[in-house]
Amino acid sequence: MIVELTRFRAADAEALLAARPAMVAEFAEDRSGFLGARLVRLVGDEWLDIVDWESADDLTASRAKGANLSGIAAFFAAIDSLVASEDGEDVSSSGR
Question: Which InterPro entries match (predicted)?
Fold first, then answer.
């Protein structure tokens, strides 16, 4: 499993949280290999989006699609700025 970590700033928490359910639903319908997502509120206006993917290829394909659907676009529009983005392999249950 691949874990995508995206840290960003969003001052309008209400808009961000209102857009979240549609974004997750559209990812589930439109993004092959999407396993789920968690959103963590950090200090101030910072957030951490944790998204699980079956494979690195699924994550790459999702990134290529961008904000292709209205719910995804609304969530992305609520983000003021990107702080950091990275991904890696979840080895917690693989025995490694």
Answer: Dimeric_a/b-barrel
Residue 71 CB neighbour total at 10 angstroms: 19
Rounded distance between C-alpha atoms, residue 56 and residue 73, angstroms:
22
For 1-96, strand residue ranges (E) read 2-9, 34-41, 46-53, 81-89
**Entry pTM:** 0.91
CATH label, 2-86, candidates 3.40.190.150, 3.20.20.70, 1.10.150.20, 3.30.70.100: 3.30.70.100
